[in-house]
Structure of Protein YOP1:
Amino acid sequence: MLALLTERLLQVPDHRQPREDHRSPKAYAAIGLGALYLFLIIFNLGGQLLTNVAGFVIPGYYSLNALFTANTADDTQWLTYWVVFAFFSVIESLVSVVYWFPFYFTFKFIFLLWLSLPAFRGAEFIFRSFMAPMLSRYFTAGSTASNLRARAEGAAKTD
């Protein structure tokens, strides 16, 4: 696993001049930072800030990357993530008692990773299983902007 992490980290471009005298691999630094991050979340030392960073930074990176690709499947994935993330953010702000639960931010962090990481596609699962059935009655195929524009132009021509 350490070899795989080292291989992946070597693919990340380093904009500084590499130093040959540096003896510890990048993998150790990544593992150390990851462990520190988890330690801070588990003991709720800035848990809200750290989970919000996890909820914005990873998906933000992938969303920006998706905007620069021609593939629309990743656009759909990240649009779905942001809809689900916004829904849970509103619910979380309305139900302020959630902050009283022990290890709330630890569970929120794990949940956000499950929602956002492309390997799991948790946001798509939540959207298709729960949100789409509830919201589909409010959004029909003919309610998109292009269809509304076509209807308006058709109505204007009949006048």
User: Anything to note?
Assistant: The chain has a mean pLDDT of 81. Residues 31-136 form one domain. The radius of gyration is 22 Å.
